What does this fold into?
Amino acid sequence: MGDPHPAPRGPGSTGVPGEVPGATGPQYPEAARPAKVLIVEDQPELQRALRINLRARQYEVLTARTGREALALAASQPPDAVILDLGLPDIDGTEVIVELRRWYRAPIIVLSGRTSPGDKIGALDVGADDYVTKPFAMAELLARLRAALRRDEGDVANDQPRQVVIGHWSVDLVAHLVTHVDAGAGEEAAEVESPQTPQTLRLTPTEWRILELLVQRPGQLVGSAQILSGVWGPGFQQRTNYLRFHMARLRRKLEDNPARPRHLLTEPGMGYRYQP
Ligand code: CA
It folds into this structure.
């Protein structure tokens, strides 16, 4: 996946790479959005400094001053990472972590003036990924953020599936590889390899992101707006045509019978569901 923080691209500025020979009709943009970071900090100067520094590095930035504001924002526009002060005007930052961790799996980095080991352990125990004490060097915080995002990208969270089987394809969400189930990994497979049957399949970055969102919630309905904002970013929640296009392509690639999918299901008017 190369650079995790590519510069934003506007809708329509790029088309789908020509992997479907002779494809005609409208072109739909591939996802290429910067990582979204929620900054929760009640001190205005510090919030501003963080915002400026993150934006300068192409992150999309959301800011909240209070714990409740942070929880509401995270729910409506799920960020890729949270930078969280513990001393907030309403609820304690530790409580924000507890609430977030009920559903939120991406990195939370605590930024706090509390330096006692007990405070650090407390925050890490309830689900923070890292702890940076104030005063801090901006370069260090940015490095920790990059590391947390990288870990998260390769991780897909500990209790999430790392490999799923869809039709005749084994999908490795960590290695980003799709291999034919019959191909196996042994030497035998190499011998029976036939030029007619492709042994691997290429998915586009957009297809990976959609697939990840779905298979991380096996059996659950995932709303179209959630997938669209998660994959393309805010402002794309209504572009259900993008999603239909890419879902159809995913099914053509993965399902045995794309017309009657068994794993990548549509819930009309609502969203999609991955059925293991
Ligand atoms: Ca504070």
